[in-house]
Design goal:
Chain lengths: ~575, ~575
C-alpha cells in the first residue's frame, strides 16, 4: 500500500470511528427516560368500594409514561409486595432487539421476587398509544396497569390536527381479588368470575353502595377516589383522545354525549379517518379519536362506557367532558346515553371492518403467506376443569420462560411435540354447543421459520352454552399484524382468503374475533424471540386461551441475567 | 508393638469398622416418612365465613405429621399459589445438622416460587408435640399450619399413663387476608389488624353470621366446615390431649367443662405434673395434658378457648368433648364456661411459674452464663410507622437469608454493625407510656460465640397507650432454652438473677413475657446456624419484634442449592 492510500485509509477509519462513537448526524437526540417505580399494595376505592389493589407508587392506574420516538425507557421496578412476585408487560412495544424485556412471566422472564428490583430497559421506536400492565397470573385485575404514550419528535407532525392530547384507560373492576378469581377458575366445580362490579374510566367508576349485601364499612359513595373523571375542554378546540382498554373481561362501547369522534389511530398506526358516535373497544386495543368541543358550552357532557357482547347488568361507566369554565364536578343536565344494544353484533363488525390504514401511511402486506395456522377457539371441559382451547389444546404456562428454555436448550422445560396448524376444522360445527370433552392441555409452542410470513385465522365458535359465542380480543406480543379480514360463520379458505384486504389493511397488535365469526391476520416472523399470542381477557388466557410463537431465537443475543432465577433457569442468574 | 497386640488391634478396628458401617446394635429402625404436599388456595369457611385460605392438599389445618423419634421427615412441597411464594417452618424441631431446613424465609432459605417443589428433609430427634406453619410475611394467618407429633419408639414408654392420644391446634381467625393486614401494619396512618373474628379449635370456629355488616353470601351458619370440632371419649378412659396454639395474636385460656387437666408436657419436655382447670397457652406453645373421662357419661361437655390479656370482644371458641355413645353433634346442656377474667394476670404468671421439668427428666442448666442480653421490648413510632423494638431497634427482615449471607460472606446483605446487649435499661421507665420516637430499624444479627451459654432477659414495658402492656410469646428457632424465671416489674440483675431456678427449670422453645414483667431464659449456643428469635404474634414480628442469632456458622456444612435463588444469593442455585 502506498503512503497516500495509507493516509487516506487512516483518515477514513478515523472518521468512521468518530461517527460510530459520537453518533452520525443525529437527526433527533434520543433521550433516556428513567422511572423509579415501587409496586405495592394500597387500599383503593376506585368505584367507591374499598379493595386491596396493587399499585405503582401508590397509584392505579400507575404513572403515565410519555416519551418520544427513539427514547430509551428505563423503569427500575421495586417489588414491595410482601409475598407476591410480579412482572410488567409493555403492551404494543415490539421490543426489537430486547425480547427479554417484554415482561411476560413464563415466556420472556422469571417473576420479580419481593424486595427485588428489576430494571426494564427498552427503546420506544414508534409513535403511538400503548399500555403497560402486569403479566403474571391475573394480577392485572388488581390494578397494576397504566398508559405509555410515544410522541413524534419535535418538528415532526401527525397527519391530522388537534390542539390538545389526552389519555384515558378504560377498565372493568372486580371487588374480589385476582387470587380469588384464579382459584375459582381453576377449581372443580368451576367458579366463574362473573360480571365486573363496575366500569372504570381512567381509574374511576361508581358502584352503587346501596346494592343489597354491600358491607357499609367498605363502600363510601362520596369517597374522593370515585368522583367521576373529568376532561376539561376549551370550547372550539380539538382534542386527541387516546383511549385504551385494559378490561379483564368486557368489550366496551365508548361514547361522548352529543359529540362525534373521528378515529385516527389504532394500536400505534394511523387510520384512514372515519367518524363514529360510539367507539367499540376491546381489551388490549388503543385508539386515538379527535373530538371537537363544538357543542353548547354552557354545560358538561357525559362520557359513557357500556358493556357490549355480554348481557351484563354492570352499570355503564361514566365520566364528564367538562366545558371550561363550567365546574368539572357539575353533572350534565341530561340522562347519560344508553349505548347500543349489547347483542347487536352488526355495528361492531362494521366498525372493525372500517378500520383501514391511512392513505400515505400504508404498510403493504406481503401478498402471500408461507404458512397458515387456523386456530379454532373453543370452550372445553378438560379433566373436569372448564378451559379454553385452540385446536383442542388448552395452553398451560410453564414456569421456565420459553425464551430462556430455547436459548439454553432446556428441552424438558416444556412439551416439545409440535402443535397442529389446524385441527378437525372442516367437520367442526361452530354453531353447535361444544360438547367435546377430549381437549388436552399443553405448553408446547409454535415454532415459526424466521422471516417468513404467517397467516393466522382465528375462528370463533359456540361455547358450552346454547346460542352463545363470545368476543375474544387476541393480542400478539412483539409484532403488529395486518388485519386481513373479518367474517361471519366458518372461515372458508377458498372463498374467504380471496376477500382478504391486501391493499390497505390496518396493522394492530390486538384484534377482536367476533361471536360466531373469524378474523384473519398476517404477520412477519421477523422479530427474534418468543412471543405470547393470546386472548386478552384475563380469565380466558388464564383458562388456556393462548399460544406461544418462537421465531429466530438463535439470533437472540445473550440473555440478561436479570430475567433468570426460576424453573429450570433457577441457577442461571449471574450477579 | 508385638504381634499379639497388633492382631488384637486389627480385630478391634475391624469390629469398630463393622459397627460404624452396619450400625451398632440398632435399637430402633429409623424410618423415612414421605409427604407430598401441595400448597394451594381454597375457599374455606372455618368459622362459617367464607375466606380464601392457603391450604395444604386442600386442608387447613394441614395434614398432621406423626412420626417416631429418629425418623427422617421428607416433605415434597409444591407451591401451587399463582403468584405467591411460600416457606414452612417446623416449629420446635431444632434442625441439628440441617439448619437450612428451618423454613424461615430471610433467615434460612429463599422463598419457594410458584410451580416450584422444595424438599424439606430433617430428622425428628426427640419425642414431643410440635407444630409447623408458614414463615413468610404473615402467611400463617391465611391458614397454612398444622401439627407434628413425634412418638417414642416401640417398647419405650412415657413417664405417665394414658389410653389415647389426641391433638388439637388452637388458632384465631381473621376475615381479611394477611396481605390486607400486612398492608395496614406497614402504612401511615397505621391500620391495626384488630381483634380476630373468631377462635378456632382444630380449624373450626363460629362467627355470628347475624353480625351487622356481614354479607349474607359469605356467611353460612350451617356450613359443615364450621360444625364444632368434637373429640369422642370413652367413659373411664384417660386421654393425652396435645394442645398447640398458633394464634396470630391471642393469648388463650383453654378449659374443658367439668374436667381437670394434668399438664405433663410442654414444647417437647416432660413437666412435673400439675393439675389445672384452665390451661393458659400462648402462640407457639404446645402442651400435653391428661384428661380422664370421669364425669357423667350421659352428656357431652364444652371445650372452650377464651382470649385473655386483651380486652377482646371475640366470642370464645367452642368444641365438644363427646362422651361415647352420645351423638358428637349434641350440644352440652350447659352454658359453656365463661373462662377467667381477661385482665387477671396473677393466675397466668402463677401457671407459667408452675411449669418445671419432671423429676427424672431434668436437664440441668449450666450454672453460669457467658453472656447476658437484656432485651427491652417497646412499642415505638419509627419515621411515622408504628413498630415494635428490642433495645430501641426494630427488626427488618432482609431478603438474602442470613444463613447464606454468613456462609458466603455476603457482608452487604445486611447491617454488620453489632447490636447492643442492653440499652438504656437502668433509666428506662417500663411503667410509663412509651414516647420515644427515636427507635431505628436494622437487620443486624446477634453473633454468639459457639458453645457458650447465653442468658436473655426479655423485659416487657408499657406500650404507647396508657396503663397498657401486652403478653409476648417469644419463640426461639433451633434450640430449647431453660426458663429461669419470671418476674413482675423491671428486672433487677442483682436481686432477680439470684432467684433463677437452676434446679429444675423447664426447657421450652416458646415462652410468655407477661405484661409489665420480665422472663429470663438461658440457652447453649451449640447449634451451628442462624436462628430467628421473635415474638410469635404474627403482627408483632412483622412490625419488628424479633432478632436473629448466629452461632458457629463456620461449622455449617455446604448449604443445599435448593435454598438459594433470592437477594444476593439469586445466582447461587446450582441444579
Amino acid at each position: 500500500m502506498d503512503e497516500f492510500l495509507k493516509k487516506r485509509l487512516i483518515t477514513f477509519l478515523t472518521i468512521l470511528c468518530l461517527i460510530a462513537c459520537c453518533g452520525s448526524v443525529p437527526k433527533v437526540e434520543a433521550r433516556v427516560r428513567r422511572y423509579k417505580w415501587e409496586v405495592k399494595y394500597e387500599m383503593k376505592s376506585p368505584d367507591c368500594y374499598k379493595k386491596l389493589a396493587i399499585t405503582i407508587n401508590g397509584r392505579s392506574p400507575g404513572p403515565s409514561i410519555v416519551a418520544r420516538v427513539g427514547d430509551t425507557i428505563i423503569v427500575e421496578l421495586k417489588n414491595s409486595l410482601f409475598t407476591e412476585n410480579v412482572a410488567i408487560h409493555w403492551h404494543g412495544i415490539r421490543q426489537i432487539g430486547t425480547p427479554w424485556m417484554d415482561g411476560t412471566e413464563g415466556v420472556t422472564q422469571c417473576p420479580i421476587l419481593p424486595a427485588d428490583t428489576f430494571v426494564y430497559k427498552f427503546v420506544v421506536d414508534r409513535p403511538g398509544t400503548y399500555l403497560y400492565h402486569a403479566h403474571y397470573g391475573m394480577q392485572r385485575e388488581d390494578g397494576l396497569y397504566g398508559s405509555l404514550r410515544v410522541l413524534l419528535n419535535e418538528g415532526e407532525s401527525e397527519p391530522f390536527q388537534y390542539d390538545y392530547d389526552r389519555s384515558i384507560i378504560l377498565n372493568d373492576w372486580y371487588h374480589n381479588s385476582s387470587k380469588q378469581q384464579s382459584f375459582g377458575l381453576s377449581s372443580i366445580p368451576f367458579v366463574w368470575v362473573g360480571e365486573p362490579q363496575s366500569i372504570l374510566i381512567q381509574g374511576r367508576g361508581k358502584f352503587d353502595c346501596s346494592t343489597p349485601g354491600t358491607p357499609t364499612a367498605l363502600c363510601n359513595a362520596s369517597h374522593p377516589e370515585c368522583a367521576p373523571y373529568a376532561i376539561t375542554v376549551v370550547p372550539g378546540k380539538t382534542y386527541r383522545l387516546r383511549i385504551g382498554s385494559l378490561t379483564a373481561l368486557s368489550a366496551l362501547s365508548f361514547e361522548i354525549e352529543g359529540h362525534n369522534m373521528t378515529v385516527v389511530e389504532a394500536d400505534g398506526h394511523y387510520v384512514e379517518p372515519f367518524t363514529v358516535k360510539n367507539l367499540f373497544i376491546y381489551s388490549g386495543e388503543t385508539y386515538s379519536v379527535l373530538v371537537t368541543a363544538d357543542q353548547d358550552p354552557s354545560r358538561n357532557y357525559w362520557m359513557s362506557a357500556k358493556i357490549v357482547s355480554r348481557n351484563s347488568n354492570t352499570t355503564n361507566g361514566l365520566a364528564i367532558l367538562n366545558y371550561y369554565p363550567n365546574h368539572p364536578r357539575r353533572d350534565p343536565p341530561t340522562t347519560p346515553p344508553a349505548g347500543p344494544h349489547w347483542d347487536d353484533r352488526r355495528p361492531r363488525l362494521a366498525q372493525s371492518g372500517a378500520i383501514r390504514a391511512r392513505r400515505g401511511f400504508i404498510h403493504p402486506p406481503p401478498q402471500i403467506s408461507d404458512r397458515t395456522i387456523v386456530m379454532l377457539n373453543t370452550q372445553n371441559n378438560v379433566g373436569g376443569y372448564r378451559r379454553w382451547s385452540i385446536n383442542n389444546v388448552s395452553f398451560n404456562m410453564p414456569h421456565t420462560p420459553y425464551l430462556i428454555a430455547y436459548k439454553h436448550n432446556l428441552l424438558d422445560a416444556f412439551d416439545q411435540r409440535p402443535l397442529s396448524d389446524g385441527h378437525d376444522f372442516t367437520t367442526y360445527n361452530i354453531s353447535a354447543v361444544q360438547t367435546n370433552p377430549n381437549a388436552t392441555t399443553s405448553n408446547a409452542a409454535y415454532r415459526l421459520k424466521f422471516n417468513t410470513t404467517v397467516d393466522v385465522i382465528l375462528q370463533n365458535a359456540n361455547t358450552m352454552n346454547p346460542d352463545n359465542s363470545e368476543t375474544h380480543p387476541w393480542h400478539l406480543h412483539g409484532h403488529d399484524f395486518w388485519v386481513l379480514g373479518y367474517g361471519v360463520g366458518k372461515f372458508d379458505a377458498t372463498k374467504d382468503a380471496g376477500s382478504f384486504n391486501l391493499v390497505d389493511p390496518i396493522m394492530k397488535n390486538t384484534v377482536a374475533v367476533h361471536p360466531f365469526g373469524w378474523t384473519a391476520l398476517r404477520f412477519r416472523a421477523d422479530n427474534p424471540g418468543v412471543w405470547a399470542f393470546h386472548c386478552h381477557i384475563e380469565s380466558h388466557f388464564f383458562m388456556g386461551m393462548g399460544v406461544v410463537f418462537e421465531e429466530g431465537v438463535e439470533r437472540v443475543g445473550e440473555l440478561p441475567s436479570s430475567i433468570m432465577g426460576c424453573g429450570h433457569a433457577k441457577g442461571f442468574y449471574k450477579p
